[in-house]
């Protein structure tokens, strides 16, 4: 009892100290010696200071003793996002083979239903074919040199000493492998875009640590004049849209495709292949070009964000991961459709994939943890994600072709289906 009272007293002291400004938020962990108690102290202090109730935020299964220092700082609890499932979606990939149920964490009504209907059409037509064409996480340090001659010399010298650079970089990781270094020069400034195979990890941290070690070696051994300006020079390119990623790729470059039979398109999607093809060409191709978009698709970000949240990916990387191209053709009355994602950045180990609910979502896909061989699970997740994007893209194009989009959002986004209006059977 004395020990319990002592903890209660210390908790109250920390809460009051935060309220009075004598204790900083981050100091609660050290003072209480327990990250879960510190989260409670911060939450109680905020409630007192701001006059708000945070009990829902405090209701969580997360153990902050495991997460502080890895996934979060100054925690006060957790937020919850509804998790739906779409499927079954049949995938014929190199790593993903079979029928999958896709976990989608979202607050957008109609999204899960949209992917679900697309998955039905794809599966009834034989399934989606998927392949990872390229796999490489990039980090691009940027160097100063006094002039273009020195810049060119540095880039050439690094290529000549590739084995030494590789040895230094790979000394920091068990699974990371340096695949290549892509040099770029602008005036006297040099970018060296290091590209790694990172196993089942998304690999950004792995690439950063390895590149930092390699850059130190370059600066110690390069006989000319060069200075490191920044370990990331924006040619990586991370969490920003960039044509470089669309062309060279970052993470996984993945394609998923399917041939939707004409009768399935008419019966399930309520749209003819010709009309879906027209919408894709006019909206995704001409419309995107007219808008000056670097990406030609309808809503890849919707599906990728929902899968990223569900499976513990770095959500900010939806920016580049949702870049891509939708292509359609009418073939003998059927619809061929493909999605190409040049920069899909995801993994099955590290980061948020260790969170309990996210790990369960990965287990739902048979892709939790490290694969055998290493990298197999991440590539499996990439193929399933691309197939889910295909399903969602197909359904939205069909809904637009049939002029159903507004109705679907009215029924499923505003809850009118629940209140007794028409049953949205076209989204099941």
Automatic annotation (TrEMBL):
Recorded metabolic or biological pathway in which this protein acts: Metabolic intermediate biosynthesis; (R)-mevalonate biosynthesis; (R)-mevalonate from acetyl-CoA: step 3/3
The EC number(s) this enzyme carries: 1.1.1.34
A matching Pfam family: HMG-CoA_red
Stated family: Belongs to the HMG-CoA reductase family.
Signal peptide (residue range): none
Domain of life: Archaea
Lineage: Archaea, Thermoproteota, Thermoprotei, Desulfurococcales, Pyrodictiaceae
Top EC class for this record: oxidoreductase
CDD domains in UniProt: HMG-CoA_reductase_classI
GO molecular function: hydroxymethylglutaryl-CoA reductase (NADPH) activity
GO biological process, one term: sterol biosynthetic process
Catalytic activity: (R)-mevalonate + 2 NADP(+) + CoA = (3S)-3-hydroxy-3-methylglutaryl-CoA + 2 NADPH + 2 H(+)
Record protein name field: 3-hydroxy-3-methylglutaryl coenzyme A reductase
Gene3D superfamilies (alphabetical): 3-hydroxy-3-methylglutaryl-coenzyme A Reductase, Chain A, domain 2, Hydroxymethylglutaryl-CoA reductase, class I/II, NAD/NADP-binding domain
Keywords of the record: NADP, Oxidoreductase
């Amino acid at each position: 009892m004395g020990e319990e009272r002592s903890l209660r007293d210390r908790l109250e002291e920390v809460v009051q100290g935060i309220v009075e400004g004598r204790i900083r938020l981050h100091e609660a962990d050290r003072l209480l010696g327990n990250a879960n108690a510190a989260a409670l102290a911060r939450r109680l202090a905020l409630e007192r200071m701001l006059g708000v109730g945070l009990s829902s935020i405090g209701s969580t299964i997360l153990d902050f003793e495991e997460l502080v220092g890895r996934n979060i700082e100054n925690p006060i609890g957790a937020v919850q996002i509804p998790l739906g499932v779409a499927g079954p979606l049949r995938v014929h990939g190199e790593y993903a083979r079979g029928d999958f149920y896709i976990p989608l964490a979202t607050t957008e009504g109609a999204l899960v239903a949209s992917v679900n209907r697309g998955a039905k059409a794809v599966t009834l037509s034989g399934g989606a074919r998927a392949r990872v064409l390229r796999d490489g996480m990039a980090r691009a340090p940027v160097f100063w040199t006094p002039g273009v001659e020195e810049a060119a010399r540095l880039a050439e010298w690094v290529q000549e000493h590739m084995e030494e650079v590789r040895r230094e970089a790979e000394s920091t990781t068990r699974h990371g492998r340096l695949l290549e270094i892509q040099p770029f020069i602008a005036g006297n400034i040099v970018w060296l875009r290091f590209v790694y195979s990172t196993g089942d990890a998304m690999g950004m941290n792995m690439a950063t640590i390895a590149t930092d070690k390699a850059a130190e070696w370059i600066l110690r051994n390069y006989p000319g004049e060069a200075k490191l300006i920044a370990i990331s020079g924006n040619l990586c390119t991370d969490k920003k849209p960039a044509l470089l990623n669309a062309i060279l790729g970052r993470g996984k470059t993945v394609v998923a495709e399917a041939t939707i039979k004409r009768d399935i398109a008419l019966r399930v999607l309520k749209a003819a292949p010709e009309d879906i093809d027209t919408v894709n060409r006019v909206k995704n191709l001409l419309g995107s070009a007219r808008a000056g978009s670097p990406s030609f698709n309808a809503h890849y970000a919707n599906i990728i964000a929902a899968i990223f949240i569900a499976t513990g990916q770095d959500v900010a990387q939806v920016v580049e991961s949702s870049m891509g191209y939708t292509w359609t053709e009418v073939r003998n009355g059927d619809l061929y459709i493909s999605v190409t994602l040049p920069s899909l950045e995801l993994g099955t180990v590290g980061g948020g994939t260790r969170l309990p609910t996210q790990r369960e979502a990965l287990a739902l896909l048979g892709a939790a943890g490290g694969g055998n061989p290493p990298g197999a699970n991440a590539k499996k997740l990439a193929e399933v994600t691309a197939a889910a994007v295909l399903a969602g893209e197909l359904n939205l194009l069909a809904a637009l072709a049939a002029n159903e989009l507004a109705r679907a959002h009215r029924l499923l986004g505003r809850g009118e289906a629940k209140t007794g209006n028409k049953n949205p059977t076209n989204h099941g």
